[in-house]
């Protein structure tokens, strides 16, 4: 299922090299990105992959989009968004789509870290447990009495102890298992944040399954060799002088890993 078929960047670029976001997309002006079920935006720091994701999210108007502002360049950002364009995809019967599925969203790495910290806060945990009792039918007075009880304090201690046993990486995996659902479009900015290499591969395999069997579509910004090598994806190399696709093993960061371990190969033998 392709919810988003393509995205065309504005071809208007200011002659001022400091204008945002024009300077980010100067080498990609007017280019069209064609999307697969999983599409990767690869690039080094400063390549524009996160900015491009946010531009797409702003143009689509989906949850999680951040306002594109920088040092008084609001008018230029607004113009760039307005002059960019996109086409939606089609369903399994090749009928055109006229809107994105509800629940589609843009998830940034900082959003993920915020959610991890939020679930570890005592006040949020307390409110969640008390709200759960109200939902189950207890009266407000009963819930207030429960809040002061030894049993409630004991339950809080047990849950908090259990949460402290999980690393940020484990919490990240829990987050994705809860939030990545079938039948949605997801824009993900460096989802590998806080994940160990095995968990990066596990997450990539989860996205492969969602895209292949459960009608999800992903556009992902990453430079993780483990994610790149596991995803069944079209990869755009934003480090290239002109926008172009590449195989994962051709990319500079992957080649760097290869050269590093090849240099120390004797230590593994």
Describe this structure in words.
This protein has helices at 49-60, 74-83, 109-119, 122-135, 140-147, 150-164, 168-179, 197-213, 225-230, 252-263, and strands at residues 2-8, 32-34, 38-42, 85-90, 105-107, 185-189, 217-221, 234-237, 244-245. Helix 8 (197-213) links the parallel strand 6 (185-189) and strand 7 (217-221). The protein folds into two domains: 2-113 and 180-268, Rossmann fold; 115-164. Helix 3 (109-119) packs across helix 7 (168-179). With 269 residues, the chain is an alpha/beta fold. The mean pLDDT is 86. The longest helix has 17 residues, at 197-213. The N and C termini lie far apart (45 Å). It is globular and about 65 Å long. The strands form two sheets. A six-stranded mixed β-sheet has the order 5-6-7-3-8-9, with helices on both faces. The chain contains ten helices and nine strands.
Order of adjacent strands in the largest pleated sheet: 5-6-7-3-8-9
Q: What is the H/E string?
A: EEEHHEEHHHHHEHEHEEH
Number of alpha- plus pi-helical segments: 10
Which stretches of 5+ consecutive residues score pLDDT under 50?
A: none
Total strand segments: 9
CATH class annotation of the largest domain: Alpha Beta
Number of domains: 2
How many angstroms separate the termini? 45 Å
Rg = 22 Å
What class would the helix/strand composition place it in? alpha/beta
